[in-house]
Amino acid sequence: MTSSEITTAKTIAQINDETRNFILVAVVIAKNDPRFFSGHAKSRGTLESDSIDTSIETARGVITFTLRDSERDTINCTVWGKADTITHYDNSFEIGDVVDVNRPQVSSSMFGRSEQYSPTVTSPYSLTINDQSQIAQITRHEELQDAPRFKALVQVPPVQPSATIPLADIVASGSGCNGETFNVLVVVRAVRAKRDIRIARSNQMKSFREVVLMDCSHSGVVMKFWSESYIKWSERWAPLKTVLLIVDARVEYSDYYKTICLAVDRKTITTQDPNLPQLNSLLCYAQSIPKQDIDVVCSLSSGSVDPATINTVMTVQQIHDRTEGDLEDQFTALCYAVITRLDLDGPSRIVSERCVHCRTLVRGQEIACPKYDCAGHLTPNATRESFFDITVDITDHTGTLTGCRMVSRVAETVLNCDVATFKQQSDEQKTQLKWKFLLDRCAVRLIVKRRSAVRYQNLYSIVDCTIADPAEVEAKLKVY
Hints:
seven-stranded antiparallel β-sheet; nine-stranded mixed β-sheet; elongated; CATH 2.40.50.140; 3 domains; 480 residues; meiosis
């Protein structure tokens, strides 16, 4: 064997223009979706048979892996080859796999056009593998004693938290930053089921998954994943327990959600549970936020907004129109409307129950908190509390606002009755209580939360309701 054929082990830091015939051991920290295209077969020499048709098109493809072998060093490795070769690499290696890269070509990435569409790395060089060479290839690393050290590198953050942007700032920019990329540090709030959609241009079925992300500044932004690798990986993400540091997430404005969403770009690097001191505080915040609709309504009616400050008069139609806009996630309104639904003496749910420990709703025939890790799960009945949870419809000359919620202390104040007293009342007494408000014009103060990535419907929380003075209604009631 000649000296030019000897393969030596190199690290990313040791690679330069003169590096040849080496093997690199590294862990995959990012992987692009493969791209496929048609190309002509390589032309044959003059001594080869003319009977072979060289015009036959051959499907080819390209895929890029981003590799790390130390806390400091990263590099991109691009593989070009036949479609089945690229598919093999795509199916064989995932983020977190430790690989051997055998005899790749080294080139400077300073002026490489392909690097504009690849993740940002520390190395000024890039690696290339072409399937026309029978030597250069990527294989799984077999040295088991090395694996823990390399796998630990997957959690090394590509950027520091200071280089990330709060979700609220991205959302506030609206469609103005459509197509740009940002770094975000987020908690997985929800992992939605995989869905299939037919692509109009190709008439082919394509799978995607929506994952709802949150941070301390925003309750939820959807990120769409079209890659099969990401779809499989996201199945292992635990809501409110998995933290992601996403570098170069692409911003897309969604006409459906009427807000900003995120997507994976060819430059995107996603790090699961990065080694950062901010991770625990972010998880603690995620555990503390209201998660169910009833929790959100209770939070809104708990005094976060002083009802006396809600003086912007709106009709029902104006409230509907504003919920269709994209200016804010939440707004307040004073609506002079007639209460057309207040089913205090009927079959509708008026009183709900929740666990005193974790505030989780206890439904139907459940006798204990449904959360297995809560103390209330082991001590049923004694750890439940009742609260008003009333659905109200209000109507004015422009339409009806259905499904408004009046809960807890707000309902007690409006009805001048607590839950224990209400439960002891006869049906006749409940009917009399209902008719104190039903079909009377009231001054209804609301906090409205628009539908979002987290919630498919608008929430209307009544924080104050009084019988309106006719003179006040005449002076302030709007035509539209």
